[in-house]
Amino acid sequence: AAGGLPLHVPAGADPAAVAARADALVLTGGTDVDPALYGEEPHATVRFDRVRDDRELALLAAALDRGLPVLAICRGLQLLNVHLGGTLHQHLAAHPVGGDGVHEVRFTEGGTLRGIYGPRCPVNSLHHQSVATPGAGLACVGHAPDGVVEAVELTGRPVVGVQWHPEQFHRPDPVFAWLVTAASTR
Q1: Which of 84, 100, 145, 161 has the most crowded Cβ, counting Cβ within 10 A?
Q2: Are strands 130-133 and 159-162 parallel, antiparallel or unpaired?
Q3: Contacts of 156 by beta carbon, 8 Å cutoff, 6+ apart
Q4: Which one of the listed residues 56, 74, 89, 121 is annotated catalytic?
Q5: Would you place residue 86 in the very low, low, confident or very high pLDDT band (cuts 50, 70, 90)?
Q6: What residues pair up with 89 in beta bridges, in sequence order?
Q7: C-alpha distances in Å from residue 21, one per residue of 4, 17, 142, 181
Q8: What is the pLDDT of residue 96?
Q9: Per-residue pLDDT for 57 more than 90?
Q10: Annotation says 128 is catalytic
Q11: Rg of the chain on CA atoms, in Å
């Protein structure tokens, strides 16, 4: 709907070859990220797929090396953070908006996502993990009312991460139009 052509990447595809042909990368939601990737033992609630982690980390590295725009959604945001050396809160038992359907995110001034959404935006929230320590160059630019990080941007790059699921909204989400524009102007 935003004007892009999605490409499903087969599990065995060479990450460098994919990045050489793609105009952008979308990292989608899904299982948790393996805590071993950021030096921790898994919490009892964590369910991960290390094969998927490794495959998507390789795709992300190749996309970043080529300067591709990246949209990281939910698990994708968490994977982006871990790739850049950050850590995660493995289980947000006290996070009242995790899985609640809708809550508000407030954005800091000056960033890409603030330009897309304005100062605040209602979002869905379906996560039990979040950024604990941001990775190198990653700015936390959106927060839930309880302070949980809900949006990040890689400083100076067309790379954004959102903790919610914009693909599930009943209206077209403008972050997809941003991605298509970033990909076409790269």
Answers
A1: 161
A2: unpaired
A3: 137
A4: 74
A5: very high
A6: 130
A7: 14, 6, 31, 17
A8: 55
A9: yes
A10: no
A11: 15
Asked if the model's pLDDT at residue 97 lies above 70, the reply is: no
Tokens (6 digits) for 49: 């797929």
91-112 mean pLDDT: 78
The amino acid at residue 85 is G
Residue 140: active-site member: no
Token reading at 167: 């693909």
| Active-site option among 43, 91, 128, 165 | 165
pLDDT-derived band of residue 94, with 50, 70 and 90 as boundaries? Answer: low
For tokens 């603030």, the residue is 114
- Whether 167 is catalytic is yes
And the tokens for 174?
């403008």
Listed in sequence order, the residues at least 6 apart from 51 whose beta carbon sits closer than 8 Å to its beta carbon are: none
Buried (b) or exposed (e) across 102-120, using 16+ Cβ within 10 A? ebebbbeeebbbbebbeee
Q: What percent of the chain has pLDDT over 90?
A: 80
Q: Which amino acid is at 167?
A: E
